[in-house]
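Teaching assistant here, posting this on the class forum so everyone can see the example we discussed in section. The complex has two components, and the goal was to see what a joint structure prediction looks like when all of them are supplied at once.
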Amino acid sequence: MTSPQLEIQLIAVLVAVACTLPGVFLVLRRSAMLSDAISHSILLGIVCAYFIVRDLSSPILVGAAAATGVLTVALIQALERTRLVRNDAAIGLVFPALFSMAVILIAQYARTLHLDTDSVLLGELAFAPFNRFEILGRDVGPISAWVMGGILLLNAFLICLFYKELKVATFDPEFAAAQGLAPALIHYTLMTSVSITAVGAFDAVGSVLVVALMIVPPATALLLSRRLPVIIVLAAGLGVAAALLGYWLAHLLDASIAGSMATMCGLFFFAAYLFAPERGLVTQFQRRQQQKIEFALRMLAIHLAQHENLPEAATENRAEHLCEHIRWDKKFAQRVVRQAIQAGYVTEHNSRLILTDEGRKLAELAVAELM
Amino acid sequence: MRDPTGDAATLWNILTSPTLLTVAAGAAVLGALSGTLGCFAVMRRQSLVGDAVSHAALPGIALVFLLTGTKSSLGLLIGAGIAGWLGMLAVLAITRTTRIPDDTALGVILATFFGLGLMLLTFIQKIPDANQAGLDTYLFGQAATLLREDVMLVSGAACVAFGLLGLFWKELKLVTFDREYARTVGFPVHGLEMLLTVLLVGAIVLGLRTVGVVLMSAMVVAPAAAARQWTNRFSRMVLLAGVFGGLAGTAGAIASSLVRHLPTGPMIVLIATGWAIASLFIGSAHGLAWRWLRMRLLQRKLAEEAVLVNLYELAEAHGDLEHPHGEGAIKALSPPNVSVPKALQVLKKQQLVRESAKGTWALTDKGIAEARNLRSKEGGKA
């Protein structure tokens, strides 16, 4: 591994963790799409600030962009408050308009400027190590790493400081308001954090990947756990894994790093969707199958116990007869009998099924439960 | 000196040039189509579906290009349509089977599909001899490259879509507003929703050519949001949204052909959104301006009535109903936000009070009757 490769991965990991931290709360507060709105509309802030300071590397640009992000949220809320449009429509109205203004401004007045809209949307992480940060003439690493590291620390600090408030305001806003926690203040603090993160990250990875990292790992974590601290740690971990694996996937295919990272995020989500321990689709399917067999074992035990030691036992307690009496199809009956023998509930003699002591206990238990 | 007639002639030439006519026609049809179908999305609280579908279409475009090497717009359109439709299905599956909120589901699909598409496209670009499948066009739209054939295709699709809307109008309306009722009455709810989804995905995928992926959501939301402010009837809303979308498309196309370097897509979006915001204020059904005006008029009327009743009660205390009082006394009785002199002037015009001396006011006979009337109304309410 060369040193630029290491640096790219470092930046990718920093971006991923910095994005997932506020992302968890966005997802839980049902305002995930605000990240999409903010990450697009900050372009307008950057363009406007550029016209004033005429310097693309000025920190004022970052401040202006973050302010535009917060302004976007305020505009969306103002529209919503008229009660003439709903929240989703308000988002759909505001950010395309702000983004359009930015694109038009660039096309009209700043075509010579290196601020092409592609790179804003898509980002190019591969170029991030070229911009170096120097202190007293000494090279201390890429600027992006320092910026993203700072933003990551800021986000972590904010979440630690306001953890309790955020939690209450997220899960029970009315209670939070009643406790005097000022949900609006918490909301705007979170939105400021999202805006600053988006500004810092989109330079490196582009605005669409900002959305991917903010929403997808937290959503995946939400499938895997119900506890907030676990969700936060899981989301950050998934973000890191997606960043590293995404980088190597991009390396392998010689494709966009941002795109590969987003793809990895999606793969993780899909895997969790199928195999999450409690609520995954496949897991649920297996559990249902398991329950079906367990129920069938009880049925079998009750059936055998019913006819045990009676004259008709010779005909009733045969594997083939189950199909007629309990209306199982042949394959299923065979499977249940096999499972019952394996579990030691039943033994088979000359194709007659005989309950063991274990089996009798199961039957008694099942009948008692039914009663 | 510039020759004004010459300028007008140039303008006329630009406006009637075949290129502009084609582009304007295409943008108009696409605007009308997405505006019409957007109404259903907005009323079903799916305004951001446009955003998700347009992003989700990218891997379809990339895959079609990768597998067949075609750059024909029809092939890419079909790929985009299938991918966008799959994205929609995935969003539905996630919201139905997990406890993930619906907006998060949209975001997940939007970002991962787009990321996958981006990865595939950048992969394609690095294959020797492969020319880019027009990522730029897809991202920002290029209305200026619309050809006659494109316009024909779009118009044909729009005719089919409008035809289907007309055919299933009643059913689609019911599914949009009362899904449960539609189900109990025995309508094939899933089939109808699928029809709406397919139509919307089709409109979005077609629209990508003109405004691009980022701005497509505005074309779905803005005309519908604008139309909603002018009427309470869904049929009128759909028609209006179609008209607004079409006009925004035409106006954007014309504006960008008149000004150099003015991108068409963003211009169309700005016009559509601007009109939506304006409609929020002046829309005849719900406009904020009318709401504000009504409030003001009502407030003023209440203030005048309060002043009249106060004057009556002051005079009553004197045992002489026509006893004049100074403005100060009336002011002291009225709430602080009421402008007493203005109210008195209005009352004077209505001949309910008269100014007996400078700054002192007394009720007229008509005023006494009116004040009694108001008091009995108030008493009746209490």
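For the discussion questions: The two ends of chain B are 77 Å apart (CA to CA). Residues 11-263 of chain B form a domain with the ABC transporter involved in vitamin B12 uptake, BtuC fold (CATH 1.10.3470.10). Think about how each of these relates to the inputs above.
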